[in-house]
Amino acid sequence: MITKKVIDELYRKYRRRPDSIDSLDIPLLFEHAPDNHDLQIDADGNLIIGSIDERSPFREIALRNVNGITHFDDTLAIVLHSSILFLNKHDQGVNVHIRTEQPSIWERLRWKLRNA
């Protein structure tokens, strides 16, 4: 099961992009979810996820923007800088986690001073 703790750990573990696209575990994508999600890599190095609506910004992702790829029992995680796509291994289910940045202490102080 994917919990907030697991999500935070994924962001921590895949904090930066790898030096090369070759460092990504791309075969893992095609080993666990190609049939359900119609995964393709085009000539420009973009990962196309066919199970996601064409209007979605997550349908086509440049592999150079992927920080990491990992899998769990029932899902496959594609970690980006500020979001994680979870592809279900058994059906076409897709979940997206979008990371929200907490305001820094200086931003909170500035807001309090403006509103005082």
State the distance separating the first and last CA atoms.
44 Å
What Rg do the Cα atoms give?
A: 17 Å
The low-confidence runs, each spanning 5 or more residues with pLDDT under 50, are none
Summed up, the helix count is 4
Instruction: Give, in spatial order, the strands making up the sheet with the most strands.
Output: 4-5-6-7
Oligomer: single chain
- Listing every helix as H and every strand as E from the N terminus to the C terminus, the arrangement reads HHHEEEEEEEH
* Structural class computed from helices and strand pairing: alpha+beta
What does this structure look like?
With 116 residues, the protein is an alpha+beta fold. It has helices at 4-13, 26-32, 34-37, 105-115; strands spanning 39-41, 46-49, 60-62, 68-71, 75-79, 83-88, 94-98. It has one domain. The protein is 28% helix and 26% strand. It has a four-stranded antiparallel β-sheet with strand order 4-5-6-7, with helices on both faces.
How are the elements arranged and paired?
Elements: H1 4-13, H2 26-32, H3 34-37, E1 39-41, E2 46-49, E3 60-62, E4 68-71, E5 75-79, E6 83-88, E7 94-98, H4 105-115
Antiparallel strand pairs: 1-2, 2-3, 4-5, 5-6, 6-7
Keywords:
about 120 residues; elongated; single chain; alpha+beta
